[in-house]
Amino acid sequence: MTYIRTTPKKLWHALTTTEVIKKxxxxxxxxxxxxxxxxxxxxxxDKLMDSGKILENVYQKRLVRSWINEWKPKxxxxxxxxxxxxxxxxxxxxxxxxxxxxxxxxxxxxxxxxEGWPMCISNLKSLLETGxxxxxxxxxxx
Length: 142
Hints:
Elements: E1 2-4, H1 8-16, H2 18-24, E2 29-32, E3 39-44, E4 47-58, E5 62-69, H3 73-76, E6 81-90, E7 93-101, H4 108-130
Antiparallel strand pairs: 1-7, 2-3, 3-4, 4-5, 5-6, 6-7
């Protein structure tokens, strides 16, 4: 959970617009029309990284998507996870809560995304509040 000094409209735009996502998600490109039942796919340099379906879309309030890792066989075998974004206006800020879960106990996939989420959300917060990301490069990538 984090608080971002922005509006729900600007946050929603940042969460669902490919050009903005690429800025705070270390160059990953996302393809989706964000409609319930539609697919979404994350690409890095044309390589499919993750994919899933849009399960719920409540404009400026809640976005839910299924999620599966596509590039690491051991993580892919763990199956489909669920990622929930919840937004709530709190004064001049928006409270953003992200819950990423999977049914597998001690999931290596959840462990992996748990390391990445704080970096991406810090970048998102910085981008919306200052116009620039906090981390230009992912520290774990060469």
